Amino acid sequence: MTVRFKRQSRRLGKKNGFIGRQRKITGSNFVKTLLFGWLQNHSPSVEGLARAGYAIARMRATSSRGEGLARAGYAHGLLVSAQGLDKRFNEKACGFMQSVLEEAVAQVVVADDQLDVNLLNRFTAVYLADCSTVPLPAGLAGVWQGIGGAGSGCEAAMKLDTRLELKTGALHFGLLPGRHSDSRSPVAEAVHEPGSLRLQDLGYFNLVRMKAQHGRGEFWLSRLQPRTCVLTADGQPIGLLALLKQGVTRQEMDVRVGAAEQLPARLLAWKLPEAARAKRRAKMAANARDNGRTPTAESLAGCDWNLLITNVGPEKLSLDECFILYGVRWQIELLFKLWKTHAKLGRSRSENPHRILCEVCAKLLGVVAQHWVVLTGLWQIQARSLVKGCQMVREQSARLAACINDLDALTDLLKELADRFHHGCSLNTRKTKPNTSQRFDMEDAFS
């Protein structure tokens, strides 16, 4: 890993044109400076980097702008002034950092010990997929087109097309312009192994694609897209909400979904508690009001129910188990929260668009690196807390930086961290709103 990282970053730096003749800045020390500078401290400052244990005593910075990163660079053999480093944040640097990030994400890294949970073990793999958008400066709209026009605050944006496999922890994401449709993303179109399960949100709902997945032996568990045509098993239209009003609180039936596709599926229905129903109705009414519309009675009635469809048979997953397992999809939302809230992805103290884009790529490299470290000893713990585990990785990031070029030292540190993960990196038990670990142990999804 360490030797390959140095060799690949130097190769990519020269290929991209970021590195020309031999200079103080190399592809390797530039990436390490940004990676560990922003991993240790999301808004680098002299004080923060000093606390992280970087050797800065001999470093001279002539400008406060970029000072923290320049001093971090000293630990990686990057002897350059803050002004000199700041000048390197240009279009070529952005292309170089993106290429390094794509090279890292292409590496398939999995936990040696898989997460051993009965519900997950019924499938060859369990995939969560979703997209998250990172806003960028308007000056980057030519490359990273956003979803709004002038004045919308989102003229430029990057979309993270993300997939997480729950058993092994394998993480993959691709970079797309913010305007790109979730439903047409590479992750949405990916082919998985027979026997695998997709837990997917409405952004990936596509009956034609789901029919093809079913034909390949892939399983899926999805919310039902509102206003989707639902037919009986023999092809007769169903007045779904009228049917569900007949005094039931949970129900399942064999149906066909889609007027043209007529995709065979199990329809699973669960009537929400009153408080949840009221909250959903209020949210729908507010959204409609903001867009100058009035919600229909049918739409408001639909707020009372959780409706899922799946091609997994009842012998493999009961109705309760389907709702328990679908609730685990929230893990990918928590992953995005970990990146955006804790790793400060999308936030910067700079106004230079190229520096901001380099920062986004460096922080994404950081979340990939900390995820790899988590896989060495935390992933297989059912009651793991990724927030606490990643905090530990950041706390030890100075040590990681110091041994990044020493394979033996890095191996010893990873073994130490694997032991540390068993102490202080567990989820707290909740009496209400059970966490994922508790959900795996539940027998009744509706209790």
Q: CA-to-CA gap between the ends?
A: 47 Å
**Major beta-sheet overview:** 9 strands, mixed
The gross shape turns out to be globular
Q: In terms of structural class, how would the helical and strand content be classed?
A: alpha+beta
Question: What series of H and E elements makes up the topology?
Answer: HHHHHHHEEEHEHEEHEEHHEHHHHHHH
Rg, please? Answer: 24 Å
Mean pLDDT across all amino acids:
84
Number of strands: 9
User: What is the share of helical residues?
Assistant: 40-55%
Query: Which residue ranges are poorly predicted, with pLDDT under 50 across at least 5 consecutive positions?
Result: 45-65
Order of strands, widest sheet: 3-2-1-4-5-9-8-7-6
Explain what this protein looks like in three dimensions.
There is one protein chain. This protein is α+β, with helices and mostly antiparallel strands. The chain has 19 helices and 9 strands. It has a 9-stranded mixed beta sheet. Helix 1 crosses helix 2. The longest helix has 23 residues. The protein is globular, with a radius of gyration of 24 Å.
Defining traits:
globular; 447 residues; alpha+beta; 19 helices; single chain
